[in-house]
Please model this.
Amino acid sequence: MMVKKKDAKAAQEVAEAEEAEYEEEFEEEYEEDESPRRAGLANLVGPTARRVAIVPLILILFGSGIWLMWKRYGDEVVADDAYRLTHDRIVYTPPPEWIERNILDEVFKLGSLAAVSTLDHNLPVQVAGAFELHPWVKEVKRIKPYYPAKLEIELTYREPVALVLLPPHPDLEEDQMLPIDANGVYLPHQDFDADFVAENFPFPWIDVGNTVATGPVGSIWGDDAVAKAAKIAELLHSDWD
Model:
């Protein structure tokens, strides 16, 4: 029995030794294969990382190129006639019948709009400001841009409610009268000749003695008596005839 036990113990020791030797050989093989595996992983990760780094660089170079080109040729592009603001690119509320002049022509001159580029991001503001300079325009209510480079503008116009009688002038045979609106704004009198007024607009006359407009056409008359009379004329105007 003792011999059998010794034999069994010896066989177990041999088996354990062989198992340890096998595990040692396996670990050595794994360590030898680890370097190529890491290299393969590096080969996979390397191109992706490089692409991620290159894409922003390409975008930066592309943007820089566009900026340099615009800096060099931008003024020439903006100055091209194809990008100039023209009359046909503006649609606006038509003026009332008593305004016979070409509003748009005068607005272009007042605002120097012929020199404005349609590429200018301040285009709507510049155009609105030019219309507001016109003596017949009371308010720019809305301005809506359309692509490509077209503007639609909604306006309200000043309406005459009375004619202010000026002091007699020795060089004039007839009394001279100038139109004003309800706020006492002095309006362009060139649009009102005596026959036109008599036929179309039986306006009240304001006679407050020696008074003259203190500012240019399109501005407040500047006389408190005229301003108060204009408010009364506004109430009477619709039923004056």
Notes: The helical segments are 2-79, 103-110, 123-132, 194-200, 224-237. The longest strand covers residues 137-146. DSSP finds five helices and six strands in the chain. Strands lie at 90-92, 137-146, 150-157, 160-165, 177-181, 205-206.
